[in-house]
Specification:
Blueprint lengths: L1 H8 L4 H13 L1 E2 L2 E2 L2 E2 L4 E2 L17 H18 L4 E4 L6 E4 L1 E4 L2 E4 L9 H21 L10 E3 L3 E4 L2 E4 L10 E3 L5 E3 L1 E3 L5 E3 L2 E3 L6 H20 L4 H17 L9 H18 L8 H4 L13 H9 L1
Parallel strand pairs: 9-14
Antiparallel strand pairs: 1-4, 2-3, 5-6, 7-8, 10-11, 12-13, 15-16
Helix pairs in contact: 5-7, 6-7
Length: about 300
């Protein structure tokens, strides 16, 4: 019901909303595999209570979640949570409380004019409690096991700073689980990267863990190409549409060197090029050249990173 109202609030006709959700609730679902469709199914008329939600991999999912989550984030903003960010060029002030995408939400707390850890922690706790409450009102809930947080503070010595560790600045955050039980949220040090939307990020900006994961992916993919038997056309597709797409996904959030990307691409080209019918020692300037100039059209990850960033 909440999704119905949220979508209508943003101008979606009631008939269109009814059509979307009644189709999802009345559909009969089967599983399709390489061996055929499953004989058993779920959904349809067998449910006494219709399924709720919009379903996994629904193309409208991100847009619908934006419609639902925007009023929730605005509530936090109106209550004064979050932080004020001043644009250094325009001088305009922006009120930032966090961001949300599907089931991933990040909340931020900064108290201007104070560096007292307890004050900042208390502000974040209040923001979190408010978010948990309004999320529950929208039939959602926070899963403590999938939740973590960072406290960013600094220790100074002789004019030099370093990030404060959990030992330096002990503090806890709590949240209610789906049953209303108070749970402690896991906390990590600023240099401990954690996965968010498929990318390992750390507040101090280091990319060691993500780079290691990418290197493992490239090496494992190359080993499968070495032992597999694909046609030249399928090998071309495997490079362009699988491994290169996977490695390109996190580029906007990274700042790796060209040498690091060369190391990532080395095993891919070593076994991918011969599979496509191209000598593995082919000049790299031509390998990464556009097809217009007789290249393969393969884009170097370092170039793609710079394009994504700017």
């Amino acid at each position: 019901m909440l999704k119905h109202l949220a979508m209508q609030r943003n101008g979606v006709p009631k008939a269109a909303v009814d059509c979307l959700f009644s189709t999802l609730q009345n559909a009969t679902h089967q599983v399709r595999t390489g061996y055929g469709d499953s004989t058993s199914s779920y959904g349809g008329s067998c449910w006494l209570i219709p399924l709720h939600g919009i379903g996994q991999a629904n193309g409208a999912g991100p847009a619908i979640w934006a419609v639902v989550s925007t009023p929730l984030l605005n509530i936090l903003r109106k209550k004064g949570y979050g932080c004020d960010i001043i644009n250094p060029i325009s001088g305009k002030c922006y009120k930032f409380v966090g961001y949300a995408f599907v089931d991933n939400t990040d909340l931020v707390a900064i108290k201007a004019g104070t560096f007292v850890t307890k004050i900042i922690r208390d502000s974040l706790q209040a923001s979190l409690d408010t978010w948990e409450g309004i999320l529950k009102a929208s039939c959602g809930a926070i899963v403590p096991e999938k939740t973590f947080w960072f406290l960013i503070d600094f220790n100074w010595k002789s004019g030099n700073w370093r990030y404060a560790s959990i030992t330096d600045q002990p503090a806890d955050l709590h949240v209610n689980d789906i049953n209303g039980n108070r749970q402690i949220i896991r906390r990590y040090d600023p240099w401990e990267a954690q996965e968010t939307l498929g990318i390992y990020l750390a507040p101090d900006g280091n990319t060691k863990k993500k780079y290691g994961k990418m290197l493992t992916l490239a090496t494992e993919w190359a080993d499968k190409m070495r032992t597999g038997r694909l046609s030249k056309a399928d090998s071309w597709l495997a490079i362009m549409s699988t491994i290169m797409r996977t490695l390109a996904y996190p580029l906007s959030a990274l700042n790796l060197t060209e040498a690091q990307y060369d190391d990532l691409l080395r095993p891919i080209l070593m076994y991918g090029l011969p599979a496509m019918g191209i000598c593995r020692h082919f000049a790299r300037d031509i390998v990464f050249a556009p097809k217009l100039y007789r290249g393969t059209g393969l884009k170097h990850l370092y170039i793609q990173q710079e394009i994504h960033v700017f």
